[in-house]
Fold this sequence. Notes:
about 300 residues, alpha/beta, Rossmann fold, 4-stranded antiparallel beta sheet, binds S-adenosylmethionine
Amino acid sequence: MKWAEARLPVATEVAEAVAAAFLEAGSAGTATLPGDAVGQVAVVGYFPVDDGLDARLVDLRRRLRHLRAAGIAVPTSSGLSLRPLADEAWATAWRAYFRPQRVGERILVVPGWEQPEPRAGDVVVRIDPGQAFGTGSHPTTRLCLAALENHLRAGDRVLDWGTGSGILAIAATLLGAREVLAVDVDPIAVEAARANVQANDVADRVVVVHGDLVAVPTAGGPFDLAVANIVAEVIAGGAAQLAERVRPDGRLITGGVVAAPRKLSGLVEGALAGAGFVPLEVTREEEWVTTVYRSRRSRDAAG
Length: 303
Ligand SMILES: C[S@@+](CC[C@H](N)C(=O)[O-])C[C@H]1O[C@@H](n2cnc3c(N)ncnc32)[C@H](O)[C@@H]1O
């Protein structure tokens, strides 16, 4: 497999959002490198060179336009450059920028290839994301981890919709979940999540399934807690299906939603309100919003 490095110089404060756009467009990993001027960095992403490369770059440009339309100061894609890489160089290139990091009070996310130095009481989540999203370096993942730490109760049955690297499913288990069902539509994510579940020694409590919410049974016990760190449109579209899977009085944590444009966050709030979810808590980092909801569906409706 040949690889290409895409590079876009941006202002430091928008680097996270741009890196997320690279990943969502199919980049196998990203890194943020020092820029040419104060307040500037270069976001780089690594793309496989195959028949799908052009489509991924079109998708990347569309996502950058979308961020600009949302009021995030992303430069036009005319600044985007592409260069071929020596085989496999990307694999080590982006790994150099994935460092252990603390989230919330006691979660420590550690690259799978590093030796952690935990403090007493730490929950250590070891992640090798491969080509999947979820190293804990993106605000949406961090916000969802912190929300899990605060809202998960020991013994909960948890649904992780859009598991990516499996980071939230693994953290939920280590925080005390009885069992976790993790789903993702991307087969590469499913593979990465399964490998991470094994590496964290939680395969007895986490099942990773390839598919959408329809792959998740409604019968046999709705979930005490669901977490969905996916883009706004997908969460809004799945609101009714989520409601069927979260037990009355259960909780839902949503991530991946940008505060602006208001139209999009309003779409999620409206769809979830219609499905019986009441917001309990909102946390923000940069432009990203995570909301914890409570399901107020009646037991009869949950039937
Ligand atoms: C932003 S990543 C989140 C990964 C990880 N949960 C985290 O918090 O870092 C979103 C994931 O959702 C998956 N996804 C997108 N739409 C989906 C859908 N309709 N059903 C299941 N997974 C979906 C993507 O493949 C991707 O792995």
